UniProtKB/TrEMBL annotation:
Record has Cell division as a keyword: no
Keyword annotations of the record: Glycoprotein, Hydrolase, Signal
Signal peptide feature range: 1-19
PTM comment, free text: The conversion to 3-oxoalanine (also known as C-formylglycine, FGly), of a serine or cysteine residue in prokaryotes and of a cysteine residue in eukaryotes, is critical for catalytic activity.
Gene Ontology biological process: phenol-containing compound metabolic process
Family from the record: Belongs to the sulfatase family.
Name by which UniProt lists this protein: Arylsulfatase
Pfam families, sorted: Sulfatase
Annotated EC: 3.1.6.1
Modified residues annotated as 3-oxoalanine (Cys) in this record: C84
Taxonomic source organism: Podospora didyma
Domain Sulfatase N-terminal: start-end pairs: 40-395
GO molecular function: arylsulfatase activity; glycosaminoglycan binding; N-acetylglucosamine-6-sulfatase activity
Catalysed reactions, semicolon-separated: an aryl sulfate + H2O = a phenol + sulfate + H(+)
Amino acid sequence: MRLSGLALAAGLQLPAVLAHSSQKPLGPGLGPSLKKGSQPNIVFILTDDQDLHLQSLDYLPLIKKHLADHGTLYKRHYCTTALCCPSRVSLWTGKQAHNTNVTDVNPPYGGYPKFIRQGFNNAYLPVWLQEAGYNTYYTGKLFNAHTVENYNAPYPAGWNGSDFLLDPYTYSYLNASYQRNQNPPVNYKGQHSVDVLAEKAYGFLDDAVKESSRPFFLGLAPVAPHSNVQSFVLDGDIGDIEQAAVFSPPIPAKRHEHLFADVKIPRTPHFNPDKPSGANWVRSLHQQSQENVDFNDHFYRQRLRTLQSVDELVDGIFARLKKYNLLDNTFVFYTTDNGYHIGQHRLQPGKECGFEEDINIPLIVRGPGVPSKHVAEIVTTHIDLAPTILGLAGAPSRADFDGETIPLRRAEFEDAAVSRHEHVTVEYWGFAITEGKVFRKDEARLVLNNTYKALRIISKEYNFYYSVWCNNEHELYDIKTDPYQLHNLLHPDETTPATLLGVPFEKVTARLDSLLFVLKSCKAQTCVRPWQALHPQGNVQNLHDALHPRFDAFYLTEQRRVSYDRCELGYLLDAEGPQFETDGLVHRQGARWDEWV
């Protein structure tokens, strides 16, 4: 039986139990002014490929009981790159992928070797937490291309205790290999990967409690509900992926394999639609056959079944936190690396797109002062998590963070409603892959021209997704009127409105393009306050301000446009087109408002 809604698909009404809270405003938070000895413990749970919009949270009663009913669900939380490794590196470093240059799951453009080569092994969250006085523990998947061959070249820094899932067995639910501390890898053939991880997680929690003189950070990264993959270690050649990996639906623990027999993928308007949607290769997809839809419904059920082990893991963690009397001084974060689509826009199971299913993902936080049964409407991203956790630890922030601290308490939410930014930077390079079956000979399992830059911008007045692909096709969705992103207003087959937000259509698109121009190469505070780069006088804080008629000539005639010189599989600057430069007053994009006026 389906539980009452936590998964907030676009346009759905909030469940009453989550939309209101009787909790009174709380006092000041645990920011950098924490006194020594008052640092909270932190548990961070990171699933793999979990959706928000396909309602997976509705089938996880223990997560609802322990987290949503006692914490805050962030309705508008986003990953910035919808692929495992780039998203995780951004999460742990607080940097956009264009600043980490880890943009793929395998070399040469990504994976653990690229993380090491970019110098992040001594500059990411667990290292900073140890410097702040924490003991740190981790079990599960860290990064892709972290393998049984390179696990010690070098060992990941920053962990007092670790037990990592390793490739090529990371996604083999019944044949996982874990590698503990500096010991050789151990294979767990025949045991379910999430159950193995659960026992390791409980052991690390016991270890953390024994070392009671220091607060702890415990990271848990089960592979569920990622598809099951039989693979060998890739050599980085993108052309090998089709031969190197066999994808199939995830495999649940035997005790869960009978559940949800009649459940199907939510039949939303964009599920296997009659007309094509999107742009580039997505718009060329054929409508799926009934055989295809039936298989994808099975794939969906397997995801829900596999997540039951995660639900039990969360229950076990809370039972132990309660036993150790730690609940009053522990923050628990629950999120995923990226979202997932199955059938929306005619897509086969997978991620790597900019649609809401892939980028708008679960984030639930419970901890001291965090409102219970609260749904936050503010915009937050994975880039914000490292600053947030460092703030809880009482550690200083870092000037090179591309994000800002996430509000956790009611007074902070009230301030954020007025002052917080309204945008998300979305970016992707390289391939898109079908993780289910291919039912047509004329549809490829691997697409290579899936490189794009995009933004989401959300307020009470407007709600847009704007993107530019590497073939220079454009997308714009007005999600207020088109919540399922079925009508690309910039595609020749669609009707372009004469006006948007009460002004001529082209004036809005010009502002969005200029904002994306800044965000696609932004660094540090420019990523948080991009309008400041366009209007240094501080008279523009958001899209509403930028739409003032006095800026029309600036945006319509003076600004360069986002474009690509060519499609590439990684972040190669000479392929990215003109860049917004922030050193001095010289901008390849064109004059800023204060120079032009």
